[in-house]
Amino acid sequence: MPLDVASAILQRRATKVFDPDHRMTDAELDTLLGLARRMPTAFNIQNWRFVAVTDPELRTKIRAVAWDQAQVTDSSVLLVLCADIKAWEKSTTRYWENASTEVQQFMTGAIDQYYRGREQVQRDEGMRSCGMAAAAIMLQAESMGYGTCPMDGFDFDAVGKLINLPEDHEIVMFVAVGKCAKSPHPTGGILPTDEIIFRNTF
Known about the structure:
Belongs to the nitroreductase family. This is Nitroreductase. It holds the Pfam family Nitroreductase. Keywords: Oxidoreductase. There is one protein chain. By secondary structure, the chain is of the alpha+beta class. It has helices at about 5-10, 25-35, 55-65, 70-75, 100-115, 120-145, 155-160, 195; strands at about 50-55, 75-85, 145-150, 170-180. The chain has a four-stranded antiparallel beta sheet, with helices on both faces. Helix 1 (about 5-10) packs across helix 6 (about 120-145) and helix 2 (about 25-35) packs across helix 6. The protein is globular.
């Protein structure tokens, strides 16, 4: 039974043990990534790129450079979330193709003005976009009855070579998705509200 958003957030834990025999259907994967690509991005530049790794041989190679973590090979799909750092300068009118000519001209000019010469901003934007997409993937997967594990314990350069990462892209993180074979550990603890939520100022 599908979960509402609040339930998905409260129930989600990092799955460490997946059923290696379970396979997601293509339709399920299309649904998962189709919704992820509707997450917001600044100026609508859609700078996330999702590499769905299902090939067993490739996943074995990735596991070898990911601290031998079983989630890499045992999940139904290993998603490598990448940021196209230069998306801001690639045919930018297509990001606003459904808008009026006036809006297109304004937005493409604003995109160029905001990002050009600001390499740290370009990179930070990719990190933000992929972070929002990762959250959407994990919550949607939970609502579909799947477990997930966000991961950054791997050799980024080595994985980049294995997936033929373009030079102007950066790997942000993995999200392993599959059927839980063992209940995840309960949450390690939640900080008190007054330590993390503030009104107006610290």
